[in-house]
């Protein structure tokens, strides 16, 4: 009976109480590890068989069971629970209110389950939570609100060995200003890129103690683009130093070493970071194969950090396209493909400068393209280019390198001057020499010493000249003569116009000038010149009592007149006519027999008896009217103006030639008016000096006595 009872009891206990060895409870810890193998759901009833005092429980261990679900409210009585271990179970889903009442929870271990989803609210209010372990699950989604600033005590969160495929910055939802390390492990996941669906903006603060481990993921590249997702203000240059504040460990990822990672490598190698914590920042290449295991941040040569582009990136078919960040350009190599035109589309990259190789094709001309001004090197050697389109040349950058060797170019346009000679290779072209090409000499010579200056051209289809040696005479250019002739003609036309205007305005001066310059005498025909029997060329009248005029007449006027050719003979009455009985008669006779009468007008001429007579006589007062052209007045100075306002002078001078010694053309005009006689007639005048013996002490009048002593020798001798 007792045996049966024992067996029944044992069966009963075995049926309803899995805990065959009594309640696994020592006052604070419930250890149900491996004890619930046939239980798939944890509910409140699991704990009721023990005489538990819920408030004293701080630890529940439920590991190594087959728990699939946790019923709502299963833990609701354990308000002092601090540690909950649910590892090694079969949990797939945890409702977000499962742990709602566990306000004292410090450690939560959910590792080795089959969770896929950490939903919003799961860890709400877990102010004391220090450690979370959800490693070795199948988590692919972590709600962005799983952490919050409430989690001030969290030191470790382990998400290793899950299936998270993108990095969302939820670890940084933890409070950032706590000066203790917080580690969030997301190692061994499937993260291949950074995302920001949660719209986080960078707000990290010193001391930057949130460490996030992303090693052993699937990151193939990392660059400023990734963290610019979280801070749009960030420049490329600032990006790496900001990246350091994320405390992200992204080592041990299968990096593809190409152009995308160049910039950070450049930043690190050009800063103190080059020597700082090198071992923790060994980012190693996975691809390409020959760089596998190399540390791209520190060691891989820049020249290997390039990206091959595909047709999908815009690379023209059959061409080879590569971005070369270290040279800051994109290479497009379409050499030897039989192209007849420039490629219409080229890849658009972060490196807009283009090196375009189109050598060994069949291109016939430079083409304008949307990328023309991005080209820094253009290789067009061995094509079929005949002419260089100037408008396309103007599109190129000034510093472009242009290889045009071995084409059909015959003439280089002047707009090539935009480029330095050393940047243009034009050899192997059938360049023709032409007259205007001398500008090329300066262009070619303006290069550094040692540059090949041998560019040559062909003249007359046979003679080859180095362009630097070409001169217009070698090329037999007449061009320049025409320019000179043109210029001279221009000057002549202008001169003629000016002369024409002058002639129109001053016809008399024109005649005088013509006579002066060309000795052409468009002579006004004076009747006096037809008179025969005139023995004197000139009869000069001046007031010898005015000393200035006497001096001027003697020292300047007569002297100069003497030098003039042809030489005139001058009759000077007060020198040659003796004062005496028939003075006036003598004067009149000589006046009549003179071809010209030159009257030097001075203020007081009318007061001089003889002179006044002469004037009147010459003006024809005593006989028939004077002949035109015979009387020439010389206005000695402006003092005479007053005299000339009065009659009879006013009338006299109005119709006569009146010259002034101040006039620039005085002598020319005078000569023009003087009678024409054959030059070299060998008449020589002897002008006896007019002596002024008495110095003038009062006024300008010379004493009569002195006048009387003037020489009375004959005026002239004729040699022939
Ligand atoms: C537990 O499950 C095993 C098989 O999985 C079974 O043999 C055993 O009887 C079950 N025990 C109880 C108490 O249900
Ligand atoms: C209960 O057991 C745990 C672990 O076995 C131990 O750490 C704890 O001190 C024990 N508590 C008491 C009151 O014995
Ligand atoms: C809980 O129980 C299991 C086996 O029943 C044992 O291996 C483990 O060490 C116990 N844990 C603690 C903390 O006592
Ligand atoms: C349960 O424990 C309380 C005190 O902690 C005790 O009074 C009571 O008798 C116990 N019941 C059983 C079935 O052990
Ligand atoms: C729990 O999750 C559900 C569904 O995802 C959600 O609607 C609810 O707001 C969450 N609870 C809390 C407290 O966040
Ligand atoms: C879970 O993580 C915690 C803290 O990181 C650690 O102590 C514990 O051993 C982990 N559990 C397992 C099963 O790895
Ligand atoms: C996570 O759980 C929530 C609510 O249970 C669900 O709406 C969401 O689709 C799940 N996400 C994933 C990735 O399974
Ligand atoms: C990892 O992610 C990629 C896509 O990013 C996916 O194709 C692959 O199946 C994922 N692997 C695992 C183990 O989840
Ligand atoms: C993030 O911003 C986008 C666009 O502003 C919005 O569509 C999306 O709903 C936002 N996501 C969250 C998690 O707020
Ligand atoms: C970016 O700049 C804007 C305006 O200058 C500023 O309001 C914003 O806070 C900046 N964002 C960050 C992440 O610094
Ligand atoms: C790019 O292409 C060149 C030439 O085909 C090849 O040698 C090199 O390995 C390629 N690089 C990458 C990163 O694919
Ligand atoms: C590279 O080229 C771009 C495009 O012209 C220019 O803006 C940039 O300053 C260059 N970078 C360097 C480092 O020279």
Task: Please provide a written account of the structure.
- With 720 residues, the chain is an alpha/beta fold.
- Among the domains are: 2-163, Leucine-rich repeat, LRR (right-handed beta-alpha superhelix) (Alpha-Beta Horseshoe), CATH 3.80.10; 315-430, Ribonuclease Inhibitor (Leucine-rich repeat, LRR (right-handed beta-alpha superhelix)), CATH 3.80.10; 480-518; 533-717, Rossmann fold, CATH 3.40.50.
- The protein contains 16 helices and 33 strands.
- The strands form 9 sheets. A 9-stranded parallel sheet has the order 1-3-5-6-8-10-12-14-15. The protein has a 7-stranded mixed sheet with strand order 18-19-20-21-22-23-24, with no helix packed on it. Strands 28-27-29-30-31 form a 5-stranded parallel sheet, with helices on both faces.
- A hairpin with a 3-residue loop joins strand 25 (456-459) and strand 26.
- Helix 3 (236-245) packs across helix 4 (262-269) and helix 11 runs parallel beside helix 12.
- The longest helix is centred in the C-terminal third of the chain and has 27 residues, at 479-505.
- The chain is elongated and about 190 Å long.
- The termini are far apart.
- The relative contact order is 0.04.
- Mean pLDDT is 82; it is low at 1-21 and 679-720.
- One 2-acetamido-2-deoxy-beta-D-glucopyranose binds at residues 328, 352-353.
SSE layout and pairing:
Elements lengths: L1 H15 L12 E3 L9 E2 L16 E3 L7 E2 L12 E3 L21 E3 L7 E2 L12 E3 L7 E2 L13 E3 L7 E2 L14 E4 L7 E2 L15 E4 L10 H5 L7 H10 L2 E2 L5 E2 L5 H8 L15 E3 L19 E3 L10 E5 L4 E5 L20 E4 L17 E5 L10 H4 L7 E3 L20 E2 L13 H7 L10 E4 L3 E4 L12 H27 L1 H12 L17 E7 L4 H17 L6 E2 L1 H4 L6 H10 L1 E8 L7 H10 L12 E5 L5 H5 L3 H6 L2 E3 L6 H8 L9 E3 L18 H5 L7 E3 L2
Parallel strand pairs: 1-3, 2-4, 3-5, 5-6, 6-8, 7-9, 8-10, 10-12, 11-13, 12-14, 14-15, 16-17, 20-21, 21-22, 22-23, 23-24, 27-28, 27-29, 29-30, 30-31
Antiparallel strand pairs: 18-19, 19-20, 25-26, 32-33
The structure holds 2-acetamido-2-deoxy-beta-D-glucopyranose (12 copies).
One 2-acetamido-2-deoxy-beta-D-glucopyranose (NAG) binds next to loops.
